[in-house]
Amino acid sequence: MIVELGHFALVLALVISLAQASLPLWGAAKHQLGMMELGRGAAIASFVLVALAFAALINAYVTSDFSVVNVVQNSHTDKPLLYKITGVWGNHEGSMVLWVFILTLFGAAVAWFGGNLPPELRARVLAVQGMIGSGFLLFILFTSNPFLREIPAPANGQGLNPVLQDPGLAFHPPFLYLGYVGFSVAFSFAVAALIEGRVDAAWARWVRPWTLAAWCALTIGIAMGSWWAYYTLGWGGWWFWDPVENASLMPWLAGTALIHSSIVVEKRDTLKSWTVLLAIITFSLSLVGTFLVRSGVLTSVHAFAVDPLRGTFILLLILVAVGGSLTLYAVRAPTLKGGGLFAPVSREGALVLNNLLLSCAAATVFLGTLYPLFLDAVGGPKVSVGYPFFNRTFAPLMVPLLVAVAVGPLLAWKRGDLLGALQRLWAAFAAAIVVALVGLYVTHGGPVLAVFGFALAAWVAGGALTEWAERVRLFRAGPSESARRAIRLPRAAYGMTVAHLGLAVAVAGFAGSAFEQERIQEMRPGDVVSMAGYNLQFRGVEEVQGANFSADQGDFVLSRGPETIAVLHPERRFFPLQQQTTAKTAIHTNFFADYYLAIGDPDGKGAWAVRAYWKPLVPWIWIGAVIMAAGGMMSLSDRRWRVGAAQPARARPLAAPAE
Amino acid sequence: MTASMRRLLFVLPLFLFAVLTGYFWLALESGRDPHDLPSAMIDKPAPAFSLAGIDGAAGLSRRQLGGGVVIVNFFASWCIPCRLEHPLLMDLGKRLDVPVYGIAWQDKADDATEFLKQLGDPYKRVGLDESGRVGINFGVYGVPETYVVDKEGRIRLRHVGPLTEEDVTKELAPLVKELGRS
Amino acid sequence: MRRVLAAAFACLAFAGVARAVEPDEMLSNPVLEARARAIGRELRCLVCQNESIDDSNATLAHDLRIILRERLVAGDTNQQAIQYIVDRYGQFVLLKPPVEPATYALWFGPAFLLLLAGAGTVFYLRRHRPGAADGPRPLDAEEEGRVAELLREGER
Questions:
Q1: Which residue in chain A has the smallest CA separation from C11?
Q2: Is any Cβ of chain A less than 8 angstroms from the Cβ of B10?
Q3: How far apart are CA A302 and CA A313, in angstroms?
Q4: Distance, CA of B172 to CA of B147 (rounded, Å)
Q5: DSSP state of A163
Q6: pLDDT (tens digit, 9 = 90+) per residue, B141-175?
Q7: Which of C63, C66, C69 is nearest to C47 (CA)?
C-alpha cells in the first residue's frame, strides 16, 4: 500500500512539476503576481511529494518488501540496516529518485528562501526547475520505475554488491548529487536571466549562494568518492581518470570557474555572457555525466545497469534542456550589454585567466574521456585513453592556474599593478624556494616534479596568507589594529583565504603520492617487515563472522623502534550470498602519512600475501578538499547574502519594468 | 570584430553541442558494446600451438586445423554464456559444412570433460589450454570467443561473446562461404 | 552483452581483494621487476577495462603480468615486451594512446584549445580595456548634468 502511495506521489509530483514549468512563466510574462506565486507553492508541493515517494521506497527496503522488484534486485534480509537504507540509492532506479529528490529540494529552497528575489526572476527560475523536474520524473516513471511489483514475491532478495556495503555509500552519492544536481539552480537562474534579457550585479549576487552551496557539496562528494576508492580497493589508488570520475570532475571545474566569474559580474558588472554560459555549461556537464553513466556508451566500473532505451531518453532530455538553453543563449546573449572596463592586468583580468584555464582543463578532461567514443563513432581504430594522457595534459594546465591563484587576489580591480603584487608576494616566493630546497634535500634529489608540486603548494598558501596579512595590515599597524580588522573582515574574505589554503594542502597531498613506498610479500606468523622507519609484525589470522559475511582477519602490530604504534586488522571478507570476496584494508594515519595494509590470498602452506604501503601526505588530499569546502561554507554564511540587493523598504511596485 | 562575427561566436556553443549530440546518437544507435574489442590478429596467421586432449582423446594442434576453412571456438566449463551458445554450436559444423574445433581455455580436464558430457560435444577435436597461453596468443580476453581461420591459416574473424542465430546467418555463414570459394 | 555482465561480475567480484601484483609473481631481480611494474602500469586490463594490469585482479591481468615478466627475463627490451602484447591485443591495451594521425586531435587538442581560447581572451581583454574604441565612451558634460538631475529626483 505504501509502495502504491509512493508511486502515486511521483505521478502527482510530475503533474505539479508540469504546472510549475509553465504557469509561472506565463505569470512572469504577464506580470501577474498570482500566477508567479503559484511557482513557489508548486515547488514546495513537488518536493513534499517526491520526499514521500523517497520515504516509501526506503520503507520498502527497510521492511524488506520483496514484492517490489527494485528491492528484490538490491536487498536482502540479512543486510545490516544501514545498508538497507543506503542501498536504496546504490542502484539506477533508486539513485534517480535521489536525484529528483535533491532537484525538488533545491527548488523548494529557492521558493522558501528566495523571498528577496524579484518575483519575475523567481518565477522563471522555478519554472525552469520545474521543467527539469518534469523531464526526470517522466524518465523515472517511463523507464526506471522503482515501484514496480513482482507477484508472487520471492522469498528473499539478491542482496547488495559487497563492494557497496560500506559507510561511504551513505555519504558519497548524496553529497555528489547535492553538488551536481544543485548546479541546476545556477542553470535555472541563467536561463531565467536570458529570458528576461537582463544579467546584472544583483543577479550575480542572488545566484552566488546557490552555486557555492552546490560547489561545496560537490567538492565533498568527489573527495569522499576518492577516499572510499582508496580504502576499499586494496592498493591505495585514489583517482583513476575513470569516465564516471571525470563526469563528476568536469562540473566541478566548470563550477569553480562559475563561482569566480560571478564575482566579477557582481563587483564590476562585466563578464556577463561568459558567466551565463558557464552556468549553463556546468549543469549541462552534470547532465552529460548522468547520460554517460546510465547509457552504456562508455565502460566504467561505476556504470549502472546498461539500457539503451534509458540512454536515448536521457539524450532527448539533454537535447531539450541544453539545446534549448544554448539556443536561448545564442539569441539573447549578444544583447547583454557589458558594463565595466578593465585593464588586462587587473583582478578582472586574473579572473578571466582563471576562467580560461579552468575551462580548458574541463575541455581537456572532456576530450580525453570521450575521444575513444568519437573515434569509434566515425569508424576509427579503438584506442584507450588512460592516466598517461591526463597527467600530461591536465597537470600542465593547472600549474599556471596555481601560480595565478596567489597573484590574482592581490591585484586591484580595474587596473592592477602586477609588479607591485609580485613584490608583495616575496614571502610566498621565499617559502616556495625553501620548501623546494628542503624537499630536494630530504628526498635526495627527486622526483623533481613532485618537489615542484610542494613548492607550488607553498606558493599558493603563502599567497593566501599574504593577502590576508595585507587586509589586516599585519606588522604595519599595531597588533590591536590588526586584530580589530581581522575580526571585522567579512566572512567571504575568510572564505577565500581558507579555500585557497585548502587548495594548497590538497596540492601538497597530490605531490606527496610520488613518494610512496610499498612492501609486497608473503608473510608467515612472526615475520616482520620494515618500511619508512616502521616495523610491521604479522601475528596470525583468525576467522571472524559478520552479519552477512565471514572473514579472515589478520592481526598485525605496527611499531616504530621499541614503541608500539597500532594493532591493525585487515580482513578478507567473503559474502556467501553473492559469492564475492572483498578486502577491508587497515589504515593507520597520523594525518601526515598513511600506513596502508591489506591482506591477500593464503598460499595454503601457512603464508599469506601481504601488501603494505607507506603513503606520505596522502591524507592531505582529502583534508585539503574538506578545508576548501569549509572555506566555501564560510563564504556562504556571510550575512550579506541574506540581505540581498532588493531590500523590503525599497521594493518597487510591479509597474511596467523597462523591457 | 564585426557585429555579425560576434553573433556567430555566440552560436558556437550550440553548434558544438549539436555535434556532440550527433556523436552520442551514433554511439547509442550503433548498439556497439564498448566492451567488444576488435581483434589485433585479423589477417595474421593463427599462432602455432599443440594442446593435449581431454577424456583420453587426442588433442589439438595448429597443423591439425588443416588446409581448409575452420572454426575455432574457445570455451570453458565455468563460463555461463558458453552454455547459451552451446545448442547453436552443436549443429554449426553441419550447417556451415566446416570443421569446428574447441579449445577449453583456463579449464581443468575433468571439468571440461564433464561440461561436454552434460551439454554434448560439438567439436571435431578438443584441446585443453589449462594455462590459457594459447588463448593469449590468439588474443583471447574472455570466453566464449569464436574464430574463423581460412585456408592459408590466417585468422579472418573473431566473434566475442556467445553466438546467436543472427551472428551465424549474418556474419559466419557468408564469410565461410566466401572463404570456401576462393 | 552476456559476456559484458560476466566480465563486470568478475571485476566486481574480485574488486577489493588485495591481489593485483602478487608476491609469487614478482621477479627476484629487482631491476627487471621494477621494469615489469612500470610497464604493467601502462597496460590496460581488458577484462576490467578501467584498470591497469598492475592493479587489476582479473585472471587475464595475472597471466599478462606473468608473460610480461617472462619476456623481460628472456631479454626483451621494454618496447619489445610491450609490442608482444600489442601484437595480440591491439593498441587498445595501451593506456597511453599512440601518437598517430588518428589521435592527433587528442594529443594536440588541449594545446590547440588553449591557444584558441587564449587568442579569444586576448581579443576580449582588448575590447574591454578602458579607452577601447568600441567600448562605451565616457559621459560628456550634458549627459553628466542629466545624470545629476536624475539622481536628485530619485532622492526626493
A1: A301
A2: yes
A3: 20
A4: 9
A5: G
A6: 888 999 999 888 899 999 988 898 888 888 888 88
A7: C63
Give the other-Cβ count within 10 Å of C31's Cβ: 9
Do C47 and C110 belong together in one domain?
A: no
Q: Are residues C16 and C86 in the same domain?
A: yes
- B172 located within any domain: yes
Counting as contact any 3 or more CB pairs under 8 A, the partners of B are A, C
CATH number of residue B128's parent domain: 3.40.30.10
Q: What is the pLDDT of residues C13-35, one digit of tens each?
A: 555 454 577 887 888 888 889 89
pLDDT digits (tens, 9 = 90+) for A271-286: 888 899 999 999 999 9
Is B171 found in the same domain as B103?
A: yes
The strand pair at B70-75 and B100-105 is best described as parallel
Q: Find the residue in A nearest to B10 (Cα).
A: A330
pLDDT band at A305 (very low <50, low <70, confident <90, very high): low
For residue B69, give the nearest of B145, B158, B166, B178 by alpha carbon.
Answer: B178
Strand partners, A529: A536
Could you say which of C2, C47, C88 has the minimum Cβ distance to residue B81?
A: C2
| Mean pLDDT taken over chain B | 88
Inter-residue contact A103 to A189 (CB < 8 Å): no
User: Which pTM was predicted?
Assistant: 0.89
The string over A104-129, giving b where at least 16 C-beta atoms fall within 10 Å of a residue's C-beta and e elsewhere, is: bbbbbbbbeebebbbbbbbbbbbbbb
Chain A neighbours (≥3 Cβ pairs under 8 A) are: B, C
Calculated CA dihedral for residues A321, A324, A326, A327, nearest 10 degrees: 180
User: Do C45 and C120 belong together in one domain?
Assistant: no
The owner of cell 576580449 is C124
Do residues C118 and C47 both lie within one domain?
A: no
Query: What CA–CA distance (Å, rounded) separates C88 from C75?
Result: 19
Alpha-carbon distance A208 to A496, whole Å? 14
Domain holding B26, by residue range, is: 1-32
Distance CA B9, CA C120 (A): 10
Question: Confidence class of residue B4 from pLDDT cuts 50, 70 and 90?
Answer: confident
Give CA–CA dist A637/A208, Å, rounded: 12
How far apart are the C-alpha atoms of B92 and B172, rounded to whole Å?
10
Q: Which chain C residues touch A572 with a CB distance below 8 Å? A: 17-18
Helix (H, G, I), strand (E, B) or coil at A412: coil
